[in-house]
UniProtKB/TrEMBL annotation, chains A, B, C:
Keywords: ATP-binding, Cobalamin biosynthesis, GTP-binding, Kinase, Nucleotide-binding, Nucleotidyltransferase, Transferase. Its EC number is 2.7.1.156, 2.7.7.62. Belongs to the CobU/CobP family. This is Bifunctional adenosylcobalamin biosynthesis protein. Pathway: Cofactor biosynthesis; adenosylcobalamin biosynthesis; adenosylcobalamin from cob(II)yrinate a,c-diamide: step 5/7; Cofactor biosynthesis; adenosylcobalamin biosynthesis; adenosylcobalamin from cob(II)yrinate a,c-diamide: step 6/7. GO terms for biological process: cobalamin biosynthetic process. The lineage of its organism: Bacteria, Pseudomonadati, Pseudomonadota, Gammaproteobacteria, Methylococcales. It is an enzyme of class 2 (transferase). Catalyzes ATP-dependent phosphorylation of adenosylcobinamide and addition of GMP to adenosylcobinamide phosphate. It comes from the Bacteria.
Amino acid sequence: MKTLFIGGIKSGKSRLAEAYILEQASADKPYYLATNEVFDDEMQARIRVHQQRREDLFATIEEPVKLLEALQKCRGPVLVECVSMWLNNQLYHQIPEADILQELEAVLQLTCDMVLVHNEVGLSVIADNRLARQFVDLSGKAAQLMGQHCDQVFFCSAGLKMKMK
Amino acid sequence: MKTLFIGGIKSGKSRLAEAYILEQASADKPYYLATNEVFDDEMQARIRVHQQRREDLFATIEEPVKLLEALQKCRGPVLVECVSMWLNNQLYHQIPEADILQELEAVLQLTCDMVLVHNEVGLSVIADNRLARQFVDLSGKAAQLMGQHCDQVFFCSAGLKMKMK
Amino acid sequence: MKTLFIGGIKSGKSRLAEAYILEQASADKPYYLATNEVFDDEMQARIRVHQQRREDLFATIEEPVKLLEALQKCRGPVLVECVSMWLNNQLYHQIPEADILQELEAVLQLTCDMVLVHNEVGLSVIADNRLARQFVDLSGKAAQLMGQHCDQVFFCSAGLKMKMK
């Protein structure tokens, strides 16, 4: 079973995804695959907030780049938090788009239960700079891939979720 | 009863919220709490359009900053138009984020019927400038607070609403 | 019957709209009204991807500006791909907003079956530059007009659609 929580910045998608996987995986401690790579202080502060929330509830794995490899080691339900940051890291490390999407497709074919968190970033005017446009495109393609392979998809806003699939 | 209409710029959320509160409060004239603070001509023009639409239908109160104080005086259903602008004004007046969210929480605990209008601003890439990022974060936290306390939440696009809660 | 598919960049709205019209118009080849005007290589590359997908399935008409005139000639179901680009072209050619919206309203009163694709661009902070703000406003007004006149409206994200109307 694969479930996607997609939404905007501070839409509550991470909290909703965490609550969901904890409810599902009542007995076992689920894995928490954190994809954040720390670039600056602002990001560090954000990460700390997330970390405090998940202490004791999850078995945390930190892996900003090699998502498939890290997930192959998980022996139980896993929360991927978040796909957007992983895409961002891949672009930063100059991985070609086709390779990124191929890795994501392989991830989605793993048999373990998975809850994925992803930012919807395309509901605005086209960005001024080429890198942002590239990211928006890749992000949307990744979202479509997840939308196709996931059994359930929730669109999040205001801390609430709407079922799309 | 508290109801939130959340949506994008020109999504029709204000019209939908106005129509909704007028339908609910059939006998009484509801209050219209306008939070706009006029910064420039473009904003003045926008406000005028809103004003023309609400004449005779609402008892208008203009209060850009002291939301709780203004709402405590209302003796009937009130439309808060809009929370985003109030957040913006609070930031402009350098009110700390925690204080803003605390005031919003107090607002949501008032007993009067309330319809709140709010912009969803997080469905895009992360903004270039720090002030915009700060606003997006605050806006999302406020939206989550409203999503939690409101009895009904509608997501708006294309002049239509989808029920989230 | 008029149907609107609204969503973000790379939300899958075009694919969903194409699949929908092809399913509806099972016997006849539907028209494909392409509104793209080629401004640069990046856009040319995007258009080519769309063209490859629709070969043999549609009778393509390319018309970046005179939408009403082009649609009046269609004798069967037509996919308008997309309204956002047409709005953009109209602004580029300095057509006043009122005239654009009037033409769109006339389009929506044509009797032929129509599937319209449109970008939701307002779910972000207000843009820095005036042209972008003007576009976001016009786009939202156009979306509201379509939301009002269409029989069905779908909001798209992650390659999936949610029915709004």
